[in-house]
């Protein structure tokens, strides 16, 4: 996991994948290299089946992060959101992620640490619908990548199927980066 520059973590820290070859070409670096990824179908999604994170642990983690932008705002919002839940001792991981993104705190060393915290709590990746024609996946846990291979920029590779369709039908997922 590499540190990301401020403004380059709009969906959180991690490796960004897309189902769109056109978008992958747009973001390709180093001479326009596109990499196709196969992801373990057992990936643990931020958006699915997460019972939340312990609020006290998250607050302690936030307080331990030296020079974390927006720390007090993030903690205040998390406590407020938790107070409205049946179990106020737990928060949704997506709340933490979104607040850190909104406070521009999900990049650099703090972003890498956030990804590690999410993985430690059983969250490998997040699925974001970027438009009506493509999905994005942000990988927090690189161990879920089964295979990655370069594809020629001159070859016309089609878009990967939408993420949910792959989850329902295939034994693996393919994405472009």
Short description:
The chain is of the alpha+beta class and 177 residues long. It has helices at 21-27, 55-64, 71-83, 93-102, 108-120, 163-169, and strands spanning 15-18, 34-39, 53-54, 90-91, 125-129, 135-139, 145-151, 173-176. The strands form three sheets. A three-stranded antiparallel β-sheet has the order 1-6-5.
The poorly predicted ranges are: none
Strand order of the largest sheet: 1-6-5
Summed over residues and divided by their number, the pLDDT gives a mean of 83
Largest sheet: 3 strands, antiparallel
* Content of β-strand: 15-25%
Distance between the termini: 15 Å
What is the percent of helical residues? 25-40%
Shape: elongated
**How many beta-strand elements?**
8
Calculate Rg over CA atoms. Answer: 17 Å
Compute the number of helices.
Answer: 6
Number of domains: 2
Summing up helix and strand content along with how strands pair, one would put the structural category as alpha+beta
Order of helix and strand elements from N to C terminus: EHEEHHEHHEEEHE
Ordered list of secondary-structure elements with their pairings:
Blueprint: E1 15-18, H1 21-27, E2 34-39, E3 53-54, H2 55-64, H3 71-83, E4 90-91, H4 93-102, H5 108-120, E5 125-129, E6 135-139, E7 145-151, H6 163-169, E8 173-176
């Amino acid at each position: 996991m590499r540190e990301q520059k401020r403004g380059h973590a709009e969906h959180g820290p991690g490796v960004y994948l897309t189902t769109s070859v056109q978008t992958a070409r747009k973001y390709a670096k180093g001479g326009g290299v596109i990499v196709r990824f196969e992801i373990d179908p057992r990936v643990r999604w931020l958006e699915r089946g997460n019972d939340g994170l312990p609020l006290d642990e998250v607050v302690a983690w936030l307080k331990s992060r030296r020079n974390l932008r927006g720390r007090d705002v993030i903690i205040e919002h998390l406590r407020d959101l938790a107070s409205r839940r049946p179990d106020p001792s737990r928060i949704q991981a997506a709340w933490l992620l979104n607040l850190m993104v909104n406070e521009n705190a999900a990049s650099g060393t703090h972003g890498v640490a956030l990804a590690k915290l999410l993985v430690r709590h059983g969250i490998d990746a997040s699925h974001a619908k970027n438009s009506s024609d493509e999905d994005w996946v942000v990988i927090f846990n690189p161990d879920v990548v089964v295979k990655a291979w370069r594809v020629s920029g001159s070859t016309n590779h089609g878009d990967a199927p939408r993420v949910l369709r792959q989850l329902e039908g295939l034994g693996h997922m393919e994405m472009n980066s």
